[in-house]
């Protein structure tokens, strides 16, 4: 099995979750794969009220829109700086 540290979802915020919500899937993945610090970044390409990441989980980040600052924000988040 391969393990992953970071998952990035790029969405138009019209997301069908399927059988499990992405934030719950990450929590399950962390436990099953023993990757306690796995992170989830959800990038909404349209500005509307959305949250796919769990706002109470410091290992999950919602990003809305994209500009020149976003790659550095993602970089810092992945490294645990923010």
TrEMBL record:
One of its GO terms (cellular component) is ribonucleoprotein complex. GO terms for molecular function: RNA binding. Residues 1-78 form the RNA-binding protein RO60 vWA domain. InterPro entries: TROVE2, vWA_Ro60, vWFA_dom_sf. PANTHER family: 60 KDA RIBONUCLEOPROTEIN SSA/RO, RNA-BINDING PROTEIN RO60. This is VWFA domain-containing protein. It comes from Plectus sambesii.
């Amino acid at each position: 099995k391969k393990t992953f540290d970071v998952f990035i979802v790029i969405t138009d915020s019209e997301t069908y979750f399927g059988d499990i919500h992405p934030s719950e899937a990450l929590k399950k993945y962390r436990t099953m794969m023993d990757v306690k610090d796995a992170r989830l970044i959800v990038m909404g390409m349209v500005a509307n009220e959305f949250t796919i990441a769990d706002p109470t989980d410091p290992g999950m980040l919602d990003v809305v829109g994209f500009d020149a600052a976003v790659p550095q924000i993602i970089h810092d988040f992945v490294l645990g700086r923010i």
